[in-house]
């Protein structure tokens, strides 16, 4: 039954494929070409074993990757305050169980989404106590505490939406990482599946081996009558080295730009350094 | 130039002697907020105020410091938060010590100054590395961390930094002997007056030989508040120097000292076992 559901969800994604390529964002929501993209990296403390879930290293590395591509970057090891994301175009989240939020944090996030702020979510960021709620934030969510992971295994991606600009030039590929399969999916609107993977036959995935589950998707929703916001999700990143994979990194850069409502290639070019001795930071 | 050199050496000597006179043995830790009591096992709450990378390869790697030291300090039993921006009052609400490695952190808005002063007034500690103490108003910032330099001045000397440990009795410098690293030093410093700094180590400038304090502590009580402590290591231009064993241990002691904790709290500390494995993390995830 679950296989059927996931395949149906994937099929919904395929129906999205049939639509014309991503329409340009409405003028009101599209950032001025000259304005730098403002990115907030929501990191966290390291968990798990060596080379895994290295949230602080992501904060360090990607603050550089994004800055050298012209973005204005801030970030932290905590959930941001309203002031911290007042001018943010997209929050990039790599922090386990970020679905666990206080009421104040939920209010902060909802106010941000209501003004059209974008989200990017990696790996277990989408875990938390209330997947029903959090699936309405990034399109899909998993319940913390469930045995809902392949552990380290091959994740063989099938690109479901080759026409999507985030996936441009990509063909099916496999990485060694961890996949989740017991997902709570958003309804009306649902996700647009960009890539699926077949669950590996690992002990922890017993009973789910062979299931085809979306692992990369986009989600668009209008929050309380505000302008639509965008979320981009890559559900891997258990193995930190995969962020630097030449097949993955460009996709993430395009996904971040897309969620920020900028042209998807906005972060693809390394720009000359602002240079020299000086204030540098934010 | 010679006059300045003499003045600096005199200052170091006078202050250093003052330190020795005053710190034998180290006085009991004054009360701070929160007060550390004997047997209190509350972990040190550390906020890492970092910033974006500047300068060349291997230099001023503020974000890498946030990554590496969030792990190190967590492994040493601290509760760690941090960011690339000046923290809000809310972010500092439970912080014992703010560890700052971010160029030109002396640049602050009026609101940021107010947040910092409130934090110090309740006894919050500061640790400053390298060009954190640069800014537009060294007169002001010298009253925050004891010494400050003006941004934009040609005020750095690179090469072998040959430390003389001036205050071997300071618990922060425990077991340390004179040593040398390759880094960058500053020499035109505006120093706090009454109180002044307590010099821990000096070094002659690689370019001129002028002897200038490069490590110090500074204690100040903002009117009506609790004593606040600062520990400064003015190197860290070359990021790998943070990993040198003698420097890492000194910094861990300096952080604990500035937090009003026993100086060996972090050196000897370890993360509590909290189930481990899969889950929200070693400390329950982020803060």
Largest sheet of chain A: 9 strands, mixed
Most extensive chain-chain interface: A-B, 38 and 40 residues
Overall domain count of chain A:
1
Q: Counting H and I runs of at least 4 residues, what is the number of helices of chain B?
A: 5
Oligomer: heterodimer
Order of strands, main sheet of chain B, comes to: 2-1-3-4-13-12-11-8
CATH superfamily of chain A: Class I glutamine amidotransferase (GATase) domain
- Could you name the CATH homologous superfamily of chain B? Class I glutamine amidotransferase (GATase) domain
- Poorly predicted regions of chain B are 1-35, 275-287
Named at the architecture level, the CATH assignment of chain B is 3-Layer(aba) Sandwich
Quickly give the structural class of chain B.
Answer: alpha/beta
Low-confidence stretches of chain A: 1-32, 276-282
Tell me about this structure.
The complex is a heterodimer of chains A (282) and B (287). Chain A has helices at residues 2-18, 55-67, 103-114, 131-138, 249-259; strands at 38-42, 72-76, 90-93, 118-122, 127-128, 140-143, 153-159, 173-177, 184-185, 192-198, 212-222, 228-234. Chain A is an alpha/beta fold and 282 residues long. Chain A has one domain (2-18, 37-259): Rossmann fold. Chain A has a nine-stranded mixed sheet with strand order 2-1-3-4-12-11-10-7-8, sandwiched between helices. In chain A, helix 2 links the parallel strand 1 and strand 2. The longest helix of chain A is centred in the first third of the chain and has 17 residues, at 2-18. Residues 1-32 and 276-282 of chain A have low confidence and may be disordered. Chain B has 287 residues and is an alpha/beta fold. Chain B has a single domain (2-24, 46-258), classed as Class I glutamine amidotransferase (GATase) domain (Rossmann fold). Chain B is built from five helices and 13 strands. In chain B, the strands form three sheets. An eight-stranded mixed sheet of chain B has the order 2-1-3-4-13-12-11-8, sandwiched between helices. In chain B, strand 5, helix 4 (138-145) and strand 6 (147-150) form a beta-alpha-beta unit. Chain B is globular and about 45 Å long. Chains A and B meet through helix 2 and strand 2 of A and helix 2 and strand 2 of B.
């Amino acid at each position: 039954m679950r296989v059927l559901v996931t395949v149906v969800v994937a099929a919904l994604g395929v129906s999205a494929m049939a639509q014309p390529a991503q329409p340009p964002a409405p003028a009101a929501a599209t950032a001025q070409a000259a304005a730098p993209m403002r990115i907030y990296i929501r990191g966290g403390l390291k968990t798990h074993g060596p080379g895994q879930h290295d949230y602080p290293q992501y904060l360090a590395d990607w603050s550089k990757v994004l800055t050298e591509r012209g973005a204005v970057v801030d970030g932290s090891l905590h959930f941001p305050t309203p002031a911290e994301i007042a001018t943010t175009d997209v929050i990039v989240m790599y922090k386990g169980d970020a679905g666990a939020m206080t009421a104040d944090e939920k209010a902060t996030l909802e106010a941000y989404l209501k003004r059209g702020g974008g989200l990017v979510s990696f790996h277990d960021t989408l875990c938390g106590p209330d997947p029903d709620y959090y699936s309405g934030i990034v399109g899909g969510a998993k319940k913390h505490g469930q045995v809902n992971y392949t552990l380290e295994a091959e994740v063989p991606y099938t690109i479901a939406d080759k026409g999507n600009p985030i996936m441009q030039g990509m063909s099916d590929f496999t990485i060694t990482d961890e996949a989740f399969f017991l997902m709570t999916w958003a309804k009306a609107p649902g996700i647009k599946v960009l890539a699926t993977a077949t669950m590996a036959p690992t002990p922890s995935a017993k009973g789910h081996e062979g299931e085809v589950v979306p692992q990369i998707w986009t989600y668009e929703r209008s929050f309380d009558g505000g302008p639509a916001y965008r979320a981009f999700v890559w559900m891997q990143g258990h193995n930190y080295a995969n962020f630097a994979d030449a097949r993955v990194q460009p996709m993430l850069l395009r996904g971040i730009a897309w969620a920020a409502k900028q042209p998807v290639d906005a972060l693809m070019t390394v720009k000359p350094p602002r240079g020299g001795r000086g204030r540098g930071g934010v | 130039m010679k006059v300045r050199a003499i003045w600096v050496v005199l200052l170091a000597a006078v202050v250093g002697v003052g330190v020795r006179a005053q710190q034998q043995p180290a006085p009991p830790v004054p009360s701070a907020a929160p007060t550390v009591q004997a047997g209190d096992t509350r972990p040190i709450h550390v906020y890492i105020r970092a910033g974006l990378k500047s300068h060349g390869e291997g230099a001023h790697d503020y974000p890498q410091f946030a990554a590496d030291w969030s792990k190190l300090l967590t492994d040493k039993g601290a509760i760690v938060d941090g960011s690339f921006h000046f923290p809000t009052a809310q972010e500092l609400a439970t912080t014992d010590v703010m560890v700052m490695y971010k160029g030109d952190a002396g640049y602050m808005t009026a609101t940021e100054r107010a947040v910092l002063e409130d934090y110090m007034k309740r006894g919050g500690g500061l640790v400053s590395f390298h060009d954190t103490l640069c800014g537009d108003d060294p007169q002001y910032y010298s009253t925050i961390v004891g010494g400050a330099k003006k941004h934009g001045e040609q005020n750095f000397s690179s090469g072998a930094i040959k430390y003389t440990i001036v205050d071997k009795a300071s618990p922060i410098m425990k077991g340390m002997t004179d040593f040398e690293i390759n880094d960058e030093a500053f020499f035109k410093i505006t120093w706090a007056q009454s109180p002044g700094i307590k010099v821990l180590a000096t070094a002659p400038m690689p370019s001129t030989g002028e002897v200038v304090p490069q490590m110090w502590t500074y204690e100040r009580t903002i009117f009506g508040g609790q004593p606040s402590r600062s520990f400064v290591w003015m190197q860290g231009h070359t990021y790998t120097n943070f990993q040198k064993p003698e420097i890492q241990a000194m910094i861990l002691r300096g952080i604990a000292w500035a937090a009003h904790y026993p100086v060996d709290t972090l050196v000897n500390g370890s993360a509590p076992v909290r189930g481990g494995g899969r889950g929200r993390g070693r400390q329950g995830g982020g803060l």
